[in-house]
Design a protein that fits this description.
By secondary structure, this protein is mainly α. 58% of the residues lie in helices and 9% in strands. The protein has seven helices and four strands, in the order ααβααβααβαβ. The two termini are 20 Å apart.
């Protein structure tokens, strides 16, 4: 799951509803990168300890945070190389998130389809119209 979709869920944003059906009953996975981006958001916006703890507990209960390992690093390097050789740009953070989905052979739920459109082999869960 990309950081934007997780953010929709955490904020109780109505945009999450367009992904809920596709995600229902699935093991929800976020990349270590998504967790780091969420922690950055907490720092930048001066979240209090209680709010941080509430979100950390929710993530621990409902999501698997996929850590860095050698396989993920190789997937990331291959992905960045392929995209760069094709003359395209993929930001480092987005590459980690995409590499996680590819390494696990799962689709990526993202609202930023355009950011990931140039990633070979990446399937995405797009929002459902409605």
């Amino acid at each position: 799951m990309d950081t934007d979709v997780l953010s929709f869920y955490l904020k109780n944003d109505s945009r999450f509803a367009s992904y809920a059906q596709a995600l229902d009953g699935k093991q929800l996975v976020i990349s270590f990168q998504t967790q780091a981006e969420l922690m950055l958001w907490q720092e930048l916006h001066h979240w209090g300890e209680a709010r941080r703890e509430r979100v950390e507990n929710l993530i621990a209960q409902q999501y698997l945070v996929f850590p860095v390992d050698e396989h993920l690093c190789r997937t990331w390097a291959r992905l960045r190389s392929d995209v760069q050789k094709a003359g395209r740009v993929l930001h480092v953070a987005d590459a980690w998130i995409a590499a996680t989905a590819i390494a696990l052979s799962v689709p990526l739920a993202t609202h930023n389809v355009r950011d990931f459109s140039q990633v070979p082999g990446l399937q995405s869960i797009r929002r459902l119209a409605g």
